[in-house]
Amino acid sequence: MRLRAGGTTVAVAAVVLLTAGCSEQEQGARDERPDGRLVLVSGRDDHGERKLEAVSLYDTPAQDRVVGRVADGTLARVRHIDGQMLEVVTAEGEPVTGWVDDFYLRGALHLVGQAPSCRARLGGSLQEAGLQVVVMGVRNGEVLVQSAADAGLRGWAARDLVQELPPRGQDCSGEPAESKHSH
């Protein structure tokens, strides 16, 4: 049987597209976040209560051996993703690289200013207290943040204005009130 040139081209193109789609999908599962956002390493449970002062990082996604511990509240960059395990490298302090369960990572944070209003400046104007933001970069005690709701609202802010939890109480700390909840 003889194939026509056009049919061969279509068949080859289909195979290339299918193969490329598979390899992109497999590779995408292990590549750095395409948007460049940083994540916050968190030792808090699902109620916001701090349970760990430092989170363990492992040598592999299988969590064979602890290679380091990262303080609660440290910013990190995602390097690879394997299911719910992510390889991160810290963006603050001494660089530490390792794998961590996504349970211990937060992508959306809050911009919180001084009490009593808890409002902070971003993009030249005073923002609502606890504005939800993503962190795009960190340098010399500052973070480049972008509003989670409005990508056009972006700017540098003092690192201590970004916290995991929205503001609570008179001090705007975000710390949950003492809880009698238990598991």
Question: What are the main properties of this structure?
Answer:
13% helix, disordered N terminus, 5-stranded antiparallel β-sheet, 14 strands, 36% strand, 183 residues, mainly beta
Can you put this structure into words, describing what you see?
The structure is a single chain. The chain is mainly beta. Helix content is 13%, strand content 36%. The chain has a five-stranded antiparallel beta sheet, with no helix packed on it. The chain has a five-stranded antiparallel beta sheet with strand order 13-12-11-8-14, with no helix packed on it. The chain has a two-stranded antiparallel ribbon with strand order 2-3.
Short characterization:
With 183 residues, this protein is mainly beta. The protein has one helix at residues 5-28, and strands spanning 38-41, 54-58, 66-71, 74-82, 85-90, 97-101, 105-106, 109-111, 121-122, 125-126, 131-139, 142-147, 154-158, 162-163.
Number of strands: 14
Oligomer: single chain
| Structural classification | mainly beta
Q: How large is the count of helical segments? A: 1
| CA-based gyration radius | 21 Å
**Strand order of the biggest β-sheet:** 6-5-4-1-7
| Fraction in beta strands | 35-45%
Element-by-element helix/strand order: HEEEEEEEEEEEEEE
pLDDT averaged over residues: 82
Report low-confidence residues grouped into runs of 5 or more.
Answer: 1-33
The percentage helix is 10-25%
- What composes the largest sheet? 5 strands, antiparallel
